[in-house]
Amino acid sequence: MKRVILLRGLPGSGKTTLAQALIGTFNCYAQFFEADHYMINNDGDYEFTAAHLKDCHNACLDDYLAYLRLHVFSDHVLAVVSNTFTQHWEMVPYIDAAEKAGYQVTTLIVENRHGSESIHGVPDATMRKMMGRFEIQLNATQQFSIDHVSGDMSEPEMPEFPPNDEGLCAE
Hints:
Helix content: 25-40%
Strand content: 15-25%
Structural class: alpha/beta
Shape: globular
Distance between the termini: 5 Å
Oligomer: single chain
Number of strands: 6
Number of helices: 4
């Protein structure tokens, strides 16, 4: 199976940690991408520079697209993209490219429920702005079904995670 997982969330939510954990658990071609990779200075330290943000996101997308092209004939591939993706349009190029290349796409919202501080040094005012523009779009047909006539609400049978012993990359 060819899969793309897009991890969304505010800075410090644990996206990078989750991406690393996902990549380390699958027996297939697996790579993770994030704009933060391009904000590492010559000393190996994370250094956010607003002036370079667009270039970092473009480089992340370019590397992701190259990875999809590299594995066009592979059957077992996982790509994980870990960016804030506060608005739907930010994910569109990733989703479109994956779907055109035959990948199954999953988006996950990562929340900071572990109580840790962000290592990114994002000011509180900026975090509030990001929270305010964070869009959530649900696909209700895959969430649960509600019978409005009888008031019955039933959840669908959920698949095991991972779906089998070989992990998310197996068919």
